[in-house]
Amino acid sequence: MKSAWRLTVALLIVLTLVACKSTPKAEPAPEAKPTPPPKTEVDTQAAPDPHDYADARNFDNPESLLSKRVIYFDFDKSTVRPEFRGIVAAHASYAKAHSSARITLEGHADERGTREYNLGLGERRGNAVDALMAAQGARSDQLTVVSYGEERPVCRVSDDECWSLNRRVEIVYTAK
Length: 176
Known about the structure:
Structural class: alpha+beta
Number of strands: 4
Order of helices and strands: HEHEHEHE
Shape: elongated
Strand content: 5-15%
């Protein structure tokens, strides 16, 4: 019996020790220092002056005349209208400032008239813009005139509003 008693006491001691065993307190993790955001390079250039026609950034500046590249004409005419002369002058200034610039002047006409007549009219319109640009400093080797006549309309409805959109010269830069 003494051994049973000793076994019981030993068991009680072990159970007491196990039950009283304290769990170690978890130490709080060291606070992570906030990391500063990564430094990024920011381009802090001033916005381009919309009247600086030598600045290529103005091609995407809606306030600049360089962003406008379509010249419209009256019916059966190849004279550049006064409201478009500023646009032509802006592109001529850019060409004058950048000798590597190459510009194609694409002449267009509306669907009225024969194919041959409209090709000629588109060419006359392109030549009118070419002459104005050359008079304002663009070199002739920078300018090329192409006529598409009625072949590339932007609008296909047969009415005055649509025809007026098709009577145009598009200024296309092949090299800036």
